[in-house]
Amino acid sequence: GQQLNQSPQSMFIQEGEDVSMNCTSSSIFNTWLWYKQDPGEGPVLLIALYKAGELTSNGRLTAQFGITRKDSFLNISASIPSDVGIYFCAGQVGGADGLTFGKGTHLIIQP
Amino acid sequence: GAVVSQHPSRVICKSGTSVKIECRSLDFQATTMFWYRQFPKQSLMLMATSNEGSKATYEQGVEKDKFLINHASLTLSTLTVTSAHPEDSSFYICSAKEGTLNTEAFFGQGTRLTVV
After folding, report:
1. Chain A 72-111, CB below 8 Å of chain B: which residues?
2. Given A12, A105, B44, B107, which is the most exposed site by the fewest CB atoms within 10 A?
3. Do A65 and A83 touch, CB atoms closer than 8 A?
């Protein structure tokens, strides 16, 4: 089946630093999404990307849909303590399909 | 955003028994619902896709007779784990979406199943 390679697996950063994570795939996805999951909760959508090359921002978050449709990145600027959590990328082929998730990036912020 | 509610949030059951998990869309009609499983410190894995009124489509490797999915209405889908074993202990999460084109699928809060 399809696989998403997400990196890094974990990040230890200082508050105020910028963060960057990415996902790559061996096959094409037509939608890329980025989620944040807090412990014991379901994932919450941060950004959805529907078009190759699209660059979208949501506050301090910026994500891009790679032009080849096989990759995406998420940047978080000026990190704050509440950014701590696990971030997942997810790809979707068709609008009615379920999601293929990356393995997650665990973001830890040191005060 | 729209609300998807799962119940129960936690359940402990004895090995060999069955347990039912409910997923409800509270303020929209869910054309499609998805069920995912997440083992500790791992990613979410799609188990099955269900459309209201039709049989669920299961992902490869997921036993349909063990994980029974019913999507009887546009606001409710249930997942029943039959004859549960300790290896079925996991975090089960549903998501629901209205329509098919570029519409967001909203996730429930998840159900922590522990089989003892």
Report:
1. 88, 94-104
2. A12
3. no
